[in-house]
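Input sequence (116 aa), recorded before submission:
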Amino acid sequence: MVEKTVQKTPVAKTASKVKQARALAHAVIPAGEAAKVIQYPIATEKAVSGIETRNEITLVVSMAANKKQIKADAERMFGAKVLKVRTAIQMGRKKAVIKFAKAGTASDVAAKLKIM
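Predicted structure, token format:
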């Protein structure tokens, strides 16, 4: 009979990473560093589907950025009115899904960013 050994990650180590991510998420970006809010776009199948069907674009943003900063930076960078911003912290990075007010804007932005 062969015994299987399973190594488990200590809970304290995982919990400290979660605490660090939350602390970064609640930090504030200084006004002079607004250009560092948006980092890069995501071009997965789900993200491209959002561009085509829901007029949304998915971007990785700074952990310290809040929704107002993301909206202001996206409007400045892309020159289009942003309707809504949703954020999520997944796998150690903060993702923002930006919905544009005018139909077809996400496709134009994706073409500029060379996603599509």
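Checked by second reader. The mean pLDDT is 84.
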